Backbone:
C-alpha cells in the first residue's frame, strides 16, 4: 500500500478505531416542520439530511403511475461545499444520478409500497459534509426520515461501507480509507430477516475473501440498526411526552 | 446552438483588445456638462425616436432609439399556453425575454442568454405585469421579446418603454403605458439617462453615493411598477433619484403617446367622408 | 413550499389583521420572527452559518480558493455566489425546478455586493495581478417559509464573519518568481471585516400597510414587495421591487424609510450575537441540526 498505512501493526486505523468499530453515529428525527418526514445524521464527519414527502398524488407525468404500488422517487445531491474541493453542481452529474438510482432500489425493497397504489413517495437526501460512506449514511438518514413520515417499512434499512485492507475487513470507511485504494463494498441490509436490499462492489476482490467481507458488513449494519432503533425510540418518547400521552 | 468542434479554437482564456487600448478618461468629468452636451443635475433625457409596427410577423412591435441605444421589441400572443400543466384558468401569463445582440456592446457577447440577461428579463416582466390586464386573457400566454441592437446605456429603461409600446401595438389591453428611466448617481450629482460610458464608469471609484437606479412608472395611474438599484446610496439620495426618474418618465410620455396615436391612425385610417 | 394557496376568506383575515397592526402570529408589522443563528457548522468550509427564521432554514458555506484577480480589478479578490434551491425545501425544486428561483436569488446577491464597501475586496488580494482569494459563497436553501432574502443575507453575513483565511507568506522564489506559502497553523488566520456587509430587508405591501419578514400566507396576500439591502450606516446597496404589482410613490417612500430603520436596527443585535458566540471559543457546544 503506497502512502498511508491504513491499518497499523497494532490493529488500529487512521482515526484510532479498531477494524470492526463504527464511527460515532448521532442522529435526529423531525428536523424540519414542513416536510412529512425528515432526519439528520452524523456518522463521524459525514453529515447528511434526508427529507420525505408523501405518499401523495403523482406529480408531473401520470404515465409513471403504478396501479398496484407506490412509486419511490429519490434524489441524491451534495452541497457544493460538502467536499474538500468545491463542487460545481449539487446534483445532476453522473455520480449523483447513480446514487439516486441506488437509493431508489434500496427503498423499493424496504418500503411497503403496495399499501399506497397510484401514489408517489419522494425521498430527497443531501450530503452536507462528505467524509466517506456517503451512500450508507444517506440510506441511514433516509430510513429515519421515512420512519418519521410514518410510512410502513418491512424493517429498518441499515447500510454500511466495508473495506478490505491487509486481509482484514474494515467497517465504516472514512474518506481517507475509501480513497486509499483497496476494495470496498456497500451493503444495505434489512437486519431482522438478514435480507440484502442492495449490495454494491466495484473493485477487485478475491472470491475467498467475499464471505468474510459480507460477514463484517452484516455485523456493521446490525450495529448501525441498534443505534437507529435507539434514536427512533428516543424520538418517540420525546414526542409522546410533548403530546402528553 | 451548433458549434464547430473540429476547428482549433483560440486559447481558453483570452482578453478583449479593448483592455489594451489607452482609455482617454475613465473618470466622469465633474463639471456641469456631459460628453454629449447635456447637463448634469438636469432632467435632460436623450431625444428618442419611436416607431410601432415594424415587424409584420409579430402581433405587435416597437422600435426605440435614444441617442445610440437602439432596441426592438416584438410581442406574440395571446396564444394557448405552451406548458399545459401551468395553464391558469383565471389569468393569462406574461413572459418576457430580453437579450443583447452579440454585436450590441463594445465587447462581443454570446448568443446564449447569460445570467445578467435573465435578470433583466425578470425586471422587464415585473415592470410590465402591473400594467397588463392579464385577467382578460385567461388560459393564454403573451410573449414579449426585447432585443438590444446597440447598447449605449440605459438599455433596461428603454427596453421597458419599448415593450409596453409593443404590447399596446399588439392590442393587448393595458391599464397604462409603462415608461422606464434610469439615472447614474455620481456623488452629489446625478446623470439622467446615462450613456454606456457614463454607466460603466465604475462604482469602485472612491466617494459616496455611487450607484445607478432604474425606475419604471405608470404615468397616468401614478404608480411605480418596477425599481432596481445597485451601488451604494444613502436613503435621501435614493428617494431624490426616484423622484428624478419619475420626472424623466413624464418627459418621455408625450413622445410615446404621439407614436402610439400615429401607429393607430396608420393601422386604421379614419373613415373617409364620401 | 415556495408558495401557498389561500382562500379569499383567509386573505381577508390576514389583511384586516395587518391593517390593525396585528399579524396572524401575533407580531406587529415591523417585527421579525424568532431567529436562530449558528456559525461554524460545516467543518470542511472556511466559514459557515446556519440560520433559521420561522420555518425558513438556510445554510451558507464559504470556501476560499486561490485564484487570479479579474483583469479589470487586479488588486482585488472577488466573491462568487451560488444559491442551491434543493429539493429538501419543496418537491417542486426537484431536478431543475429550483434553478429559476436560484438564479434570481443569485443575481440579487451579486447586485447587493456590487459596491466598494460591502466587503473589503482589497484585503482579499495576495499579490496584485497574480493571486487573490476567491470566496465561493454557496447558499443552500433547506426550507422555505417566506422571507428568503433576509434569511440568506443574515446567513451570509454570519458566514463571512466566521470565515478564516489562512495567512499567506510571499517570498522570493529561487528563479526570481514569487513563492506563496500557506500557514500550516489553523489558528494563524485572517478574519474578514464584516462591518459594512449589508442585510436585506424585504418589505411586503399588504393592503394599505407594509410588513417585514412576511410568512408565506402574508406573501400570498401581498401584491408587491420591496427588497432593500441596508448597511449598518443606513445606506442602501441594492433595492428592487419584486412581485406582480405596482407601488404608489408615496407608499414607496414610506417603505424605504421603514426598511432603512429596520435594517439599521437589525445589525446591532446581529453583530452582538455573533461576537458573543465567537467569545465562547472552543468551549462552545456545537448544535447544528442535532439540537
Residues:
Amino acid at each position: 500500500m503506497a502512502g498511508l498505512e491504513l491499518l497499523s501493526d497494532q490493529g488500529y486505523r487512521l482515526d484510532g478505531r479498531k477494524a470492526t468499530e463504527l464511527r460515532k453515529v448521532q442522529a435526529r428525527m423531525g428536523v424540519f416542520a414542513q416536510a412529512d418526514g425528515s432526519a439528520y445524521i452524523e456518522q463521524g464527519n459525514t453529515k447528511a439530511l434526508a427529507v420525505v414527502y408523501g405518499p401523495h398524488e403523482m406529480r408531473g407525468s401520470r404515465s409513471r403511475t403504478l396501479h398496484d404500488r407506490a412509486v419511490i422517487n429519490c434524489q441524491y445531491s451534495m452541497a457544493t461545499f460538502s467536499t474538500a474541493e468545491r463542487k460545481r453542481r449539487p446534483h445532476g452529474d453522473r455520480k449523483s444520478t447513480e446514487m439516486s438510482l441506488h437509493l431508489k432500489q434500496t427503498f423499493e425493497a424496504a418500503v411497503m409500497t403496495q399499501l399506497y397504489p397510484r401514489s408517489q413517495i419522494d425521498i430527497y437526501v443531501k450530503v452536507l459534509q462528505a467524509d466517506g460512506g456517503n451512500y450508507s449514511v444517506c440510506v441511514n438518514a433516509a430510513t429515519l426520515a421515512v420512519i418519521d413520515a410514518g410510512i410502513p417499512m418491512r424493517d429498518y434499512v441499515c447500510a454500511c461501507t466495508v473495506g478490505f485492507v491487509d486481509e482484514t475487513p474494515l467497517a465504516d470507511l472514512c474518506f481517507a480509507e475509501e480513497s486509499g485504494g483497496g476494495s470496498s463494498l456497500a451493503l444495505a441490509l434489512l437486519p431482522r430477516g438478514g435480507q440484502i436490499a442492495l449490495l454494491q462492489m466495484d473493485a477487485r476482490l478475491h472470491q475467498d475473501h467475499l464471505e468474510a467481507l459480507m460477514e463484517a458488513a452484516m455485523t456493521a449494519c446490525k450495529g448501525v440498526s441498534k443505534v437507529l432503533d435507539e434514536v427512533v425510540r428516543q424520538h418517540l418518547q420525546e414526542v409522546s411526552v410533548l403530546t402528553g400521552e | 446552438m451548433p458549434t464547430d468542434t473540429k476547428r482549433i479554437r483560440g486559447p481558453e482564456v483570452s482578453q478583449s483588445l479593448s483592455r489594451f487600448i489607452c482609455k482617454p478618461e475613465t473618470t466622469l468629468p465633474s463639471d456641469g456638462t456631459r460628453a454629449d452636451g447635456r447637463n448634469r443635475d438636469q432632467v435632460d433625457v436623450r431625444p428618442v425616436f419611436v416607431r410601432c409596427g415594424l415587424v409584420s410577423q409579430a402581433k405587435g412591435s416597437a422600435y426605440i432609439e435614444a441617442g445610440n441605444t437602439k432596441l426592438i421589441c416584438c410581442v406574440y400572443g395571446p396564444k394557448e399556453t405552451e406548458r399545459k400543466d401551468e395553464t391558469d384558468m383565471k389569468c393569462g401569463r406574461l413572459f418576457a425575454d430580453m437579450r443583447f445582440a452579440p454585436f450590441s456592446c463594445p465587447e462581443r457577447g454570446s448568443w446564449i442568454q447569460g445570467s445578467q440577461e435573465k435578470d433583466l428579463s425578470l425586471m422587464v416582466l415585473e415592470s410590465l405585469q402591473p400594467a397588463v390586464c392579464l385577467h382578460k386573457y385567461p388560459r393564454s400566454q403573451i410573449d414579449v421579446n426585447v432585443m438590444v441592437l446597440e447598447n449605449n446605456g440605459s438599455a433596461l429603461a428603454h427596453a421597458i418603454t419599448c415593450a409596453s409600446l409593443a404590447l399596446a401595438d399588439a392590442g393587448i389591453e393595458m391599464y397604462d403605458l409603462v415608461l422606464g428611466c434610469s439615472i447614474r448617481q455620481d456623488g452629489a450629482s446625478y446623470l439622467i439617462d446615462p450613456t454606456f460610458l457614463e454607466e460603466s464608469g465604475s462604482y469602485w471609484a472612491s466617494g459616496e453615493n455611487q450607484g445607478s437606479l432604474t425606475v419604471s412608472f405608470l404615468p397616468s395611474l401614478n404608480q411605480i411598477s418596477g425599481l432596481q438599484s445597485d451601488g451604494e446610496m444613502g436613503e435621501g439620495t435614493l428617494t431624490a433619484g426616484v423622484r428624478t426618474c419619475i420626472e424623466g418618465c413624464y418627459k418621455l410620455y408625450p413622445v410615446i403617446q404621439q407614436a402610439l396615436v400615429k401607429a393607430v391612425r396608420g393601422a386604421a385610417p379614419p373613415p373617409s367622408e364620401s | 413550499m415556495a408558495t401557498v394557496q389561500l382562500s379569499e376568506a383567509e386573505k381577508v383575515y390576514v389583511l384586516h389583521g395587518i391593517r390593525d397592526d396585528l399579524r396572524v402570529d401575533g407580531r406587529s408589522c415591523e417585527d421579525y420572527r424568532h431567529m436562530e443563528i449558528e456559525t461554524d457548522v460545516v467543518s470542511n468550509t472556511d466559514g459557515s452559518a446556519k440560520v433559521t427564521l420561522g420555518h425558513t432554514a438556510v445554510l451558507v458555506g464559504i470556501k476560499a480558493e486561490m485564484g487570479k484577480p479579474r483583469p479589470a480589478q487586479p488588486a482585488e479578490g472577488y466573491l462568487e455566489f451560488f444559491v442551491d434551491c434543493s429539493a429538501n425545501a419543496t418537491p417542486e425544486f426537484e431536478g431543475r425546478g429550483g434553478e429559476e428561483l436560484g438564479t434570481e436569488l443569485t443575481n440579487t446577491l451579486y447586485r447587493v455586493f456590487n459596491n466598494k464597501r460591502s466587503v473589503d475586496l482589497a484585503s482579499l488580494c495576495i499579490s496584485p495581478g497574480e493571486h487573490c482569494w476567491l470566496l465561493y459563497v454557496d447558499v443552500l436553501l433547506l426550507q422555505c417559509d417566506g422571507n428568503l432574502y433576509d434569511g440568506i443575507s443574515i446567513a451570509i453575513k454570519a458566514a463571512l464573519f466566521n470565515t478564516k483565511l489562512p495567512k499567506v507568506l510571499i517570498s522570493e522564489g529561487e528563479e526570481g518568481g514569487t513563492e506563496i506559502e500557506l500557514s500550516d497553523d489553523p489558528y494563524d488566520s485572517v478574519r474578514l471585516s464584516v462591518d459594512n456587509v449589508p442585510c436585506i430587508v424585504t418589505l411586503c405591501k399588504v393592503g394599505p400597510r407594509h410588513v417585514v419578514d412576511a410568512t408565506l400566507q402574508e406573501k400570498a396576500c401581498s401584491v408587491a414587495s420591496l427588497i432593500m439591502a441596508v448597511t449598518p450606516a443606513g445606506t442602501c446597496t441594492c433595492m428592487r421591487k419584486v412581485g406582480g404589482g405596482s407601488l404608489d410613490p408615496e407608499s414607496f417612500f414610506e417603505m424605504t424609510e421603514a426598511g432603512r430603520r429596520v435594517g439599521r436596527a437589525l445589525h446591532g443585535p446581529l453583530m452582538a450575537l455573533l461576537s458573543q458566540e465567537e467569545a465562547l471559543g472552543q468551549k462552545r457546544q456545537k448544535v447544528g441540526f442535532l439540537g
